[in-house]
Amino acid sequence: MAKKLNPWDNGEENLWPENGVISAGKIIDFTKIKDPKDNFGAYLKYGILALICLWLLSGFYQVQPSEEGVVLRFGKYTETTSAGLHYHLPYPIEEVIKVNVSQERSINLGTSGGMSRNTFTESHMLTGDENIVDINLTVVWKIKDAKDYLFNVRNPDETVQVAAQSVLREIVGQSEMQPIITGDRGKVEDDTKDELQRVLDEFGAGIQIVRVKLQKADPPREVVDAFNEVQRAKADMERYKNEAEAYRNEVLPKAKGRAAQIIQDAEAYKAATINKAQGEAGRFAYVYEAYKQGKTVTIKKMYLDTMEKVLQNSNTIVLDQSQKGGILPILPLNNANTKGEK
Distance between CA 108 and CA 114 in Å, rounded? Predict the structure, then answer.
């Protein structure tokens, strides 16, 4: 009869060893087999170490050239990092918020809401000369300080829009309508950009205004016909003014030239008269001196000079009284002199 090897068999002979089992002719010693609980503890320890390593490695982060990294420690700002590979204490101790600082963002003013009669939207603004202008404005901006941008303003887009709306109304309210709608928009754009940047800097928004562009600046649709009539009237006024200026520029130089000529003629007449009077006075003084030197000679000369002047334009007739018979021969000397001169 074969021997039973089953240790639970109640046969006559129990071949089960005290600390082992017979298997294929070998005795297995159970005292040398490790408890499964010991293996689980080792695996758990290695797993925890691996998780700790992975957790520590998760602190490495990459910041792109167009970005800035804002490091927070338990939600509080710690530092701002630039482009490159960096490390921070893993979450939840520290975390990083990456902000694109090179991307240009834009908002539009004057395009919200539909335009209907007797309804004014944000695009309608009052000018300094008490006119209403319909304006569409585009504001382009980007982030210049990631920390301020994240923590100093709650809604950056809305903040820029409200600030731009307020600043634009102030600038338009200080300007006249005509320059705004007829091409002199550069001043409005520059003033709006500078003032808007100043306001955002006061807020500490961390935002840089890149450019401001007026897309449209027109009178409201309800009054455009009346406005066009006013513009035509102003154009006519300018045309008449230019024509008057042209006429003035043509006539005034001629009048000034004529006046200058008259003045010059008067000055010449004045000088000639004075010179003549001075000459007469000098001649009179000369004659008077000669008269004092020789009264008889001077009187006779003056008489002869006077008679010469008196008789030079009269007809001269010479009568020969030696002739008898009553007929007087006439010698017309004036006619002879005249023919001789001819």
Answer: 14
Please report the pLDDT score of residue 14 as a whole number: 47
Residues 187, 188, 194, 196: what is their CA dihedral angle, to the nearest 10 degrees? 180
300-334 pLDDT, tens digit per residue, is 877 888 888 777 776 666 555 665 555 555 555 55
Which pLDDT value is given to residue 29? 53
3-state secondary structure of 317: strand
Give the residues across from 62 on adjacent strands. 85
DSSP state of 221: G
Element (H, E) at 338: helix 333-341
Distance CA 172, CA 62 (A): 46
Distance CA 266, CA 272 (A): 10
Nearest to 195 by CA among 139, 157, 154: 139
Say if CB 165 and CB 122 are below 8 A apart: yes
Whether the CA torsion 11, 16, 21, 25 is positive or negative: it is negative
| Burial (Cβ within 10 Å: 0-12, 13-18, ≥19) of residue 281 | exposed
